[in-house]
Amino acid sequence: MQPRDNLVLEFWDRSKELHINNKEYRDFVNTFFSFLLKSDIKKRDLTSNSLIEKNKNISAAIVAKETGILAGVEEFSFLNRDLKIRKFKNDGDRINKNEILLKLSGNAIKILERERTSLNLLQRMSGIATLTYNMARIMKKTKIAATRKTLWGLLDKKAVSVGGGLTHRLNLNDGIIIKDNHLKILGDGIERAINRVKTKSKYIEIEVENKKQALTAASIIKNLSRKNKIKNMHAIMLDKIAPAEIKSIIRELKENNFYESILLEASGNINDGNLAEYADCGVDIISMGCITNSARVLNISQEIE
User: Fold this and answer.
1) Which listed residue, 23, 34, 167, 274, has the most CB atoms within 10 A of its CB?
2) pLDDT tens, 242-261?
3) Helix 23-41 with 154-162: angle, nearest 10 deg
4) Distance of CA 43 to CAs 5, 46, 49, 162, Å?
């Protein structure tokens, strides 16, 4: 069997797909930016077009106004690919107040009309990367992961990865998570639910809410792993379960020889106030919606030279 850390990355990390050279990601970024720019500019930037000559060229600096982790440089460069860009910092770099991050030069109207969208991109992605980085430092061996509670979709996931977190699923087609609502609709229990999907995805995770459900799911998964020729990977999501109870669950999983058959995720109501307790539980990852849906933007500005 692969080392457990490698299995964790295989199951919950898709960061290698989040780059502009990947057509699916590039298409998403292009479509998303087109929407943002169209929404902001409408027909044209009325002020800039009224005041500035059409062929006027300028230079501008992108400057950090506070300390953090920079993210969004690749996407910023893609958005402004028809301008000349000089990079002083890259994705994942620590940045300090008043540092110049990038410089761009070219058509003045283009630089001005994209200013807000470009800065929103860097500010949001850097804010998420900074929060992820700070929370990841609290962890021991446990990894921190995003959820699908995002505003900017794959861009938020990319920012988490830049900050040192795992992406989790990028979309609903990226793996199977059987949640309580699925079980309520099916009405026929965990085992039959897992059996229905075991040949349709390599990655199968099931959400549980207490120790009894966790041990039941682990027993079923171990039996299926013995029987199945198809090598699925299985995980259990411990949803809204207190740290002390998670420790107890993991002890029993090990006593029953279930632990090696599954990966473990803690999720639900986890934040910076209780993260250290969860990090000490023994789970493989902790997923947190707050790193994408509650991150404060990092202050970055554009200054004309």
Assistant:
1) 167
2) 999 999 999 999 999 999 88
3) 110
4) 51, 8, 11, 35
Q: How many CB atoms lie within 10 A of CB 278?
A: 25
SS3 content of the chain, % helix, strand, coil (to 5): 45, 20, 35
Global pTM reads: 0.94
> What's domain 4-13+138-293's architecture?
Alpha-Beta Barrel (3.20)
- Cβ-contact 158, 22 below 8 angstroms: no
**Angle in degrees, 0-180, between the axes of helices 115-136 and 23-41, rounded to the nearest 10:** 130
Specify whether the CB–CB gap between 145 and 265 falls below 8 A. yes
Confidence at 148, pLDDT banded by 50, 70, 90: very high
Q: Is 212 exposed, middle or buried (CB count within 10 Å of its CB: 0-12, 13-18, 19+)?
A: exposed
CATH fold group of domain 17-129+297-304 = Aldehyde Oxidoreductase; domain 3 (3.90.1170)
